Amino acid sequence: MLDYYNHFYWKFATTFLDTVVVVVVVVVRVVAVVVVVEVVAAAAEVKKIAHLEVLCGNTLFIHDGKQRSKQTNLCESQSITVLNRININNNNNNNDDDDDDDDDDDDDDDDDDDDKNNNNNKQ
Fold first, then answer.
1. Does residue 117 sit within a domain?
2. pTM (2 decimals)?
3. Does a structural domain hold residue 47?
4. Which residues contact 75 (CB under 8 A, 6 or more apart)?
5. What is the C-alpha to C-alpha distance for residues 115 and 111, in angstroms, rounded to an integer?
6. pLDDT tens digits for 43-60?
7. Is position 108 within any domain?
8. Does residue 73 surpass a pLDDT of 80?
9. Per the domain annotation, does 102 fall within a domain?
10. Mean pLDDT over the full length of the chain
11. What pLDDT, on a 0 to 100 scale, did the predictor assign at position 31?
């Protein structure tokens, strides 16, 4: 009878340990996939910044969409153009239409000013 209980506990212990090992292996694999995805995303960002550095021939830092750079006058317009293209692409990806609405309001104000000038000229 004692042998039966010893066998039962041993079987339970090995099944439990097998379960723990499987859970640990699954967690390690998930963490590895997340790390690989983060490394690939970081490499893409570094490649973008490296392209800007080569274009300008000096150091250019981008952090959270804000430009911080050491530039010469010859290189400033080129790098700002590239940064504007990147910002435009980022804005298109975010589908922000707020900027477009502001531009339309400015055009309406200009039309009102023209109407006032025409009325003053008629008098």
1. no
2. 0.34
3. yes
4. 55, 56, 57, 58
5. 6
6. 887 777 655 555 555 554
7. no
8. no
9. no
10. 63
11. 95
Place of tokens 């400015």: 106
- Only one residue has tokens 């209980």, namely 5
Helix 2-56 × helix 73-94 angle, to 10°: 140
Q: What is the DSSP letter of 70?
A: -
pLDDT of residue 118: 52
d(CA 29, CA 74): 49
> What is the tally of structural domains in the chain?
1
Contact 69, 82 (CB under 8 A): no
Measured between alpha carbons, how far is residue 106 from residues 100, 111, 114, 116 in Å?
10, 9, 13, 16
Domain that holds residue 45: 2-94
Amino acid letter, 10: W
Residues 79-102: what's their mean pLDDT?
A: 54
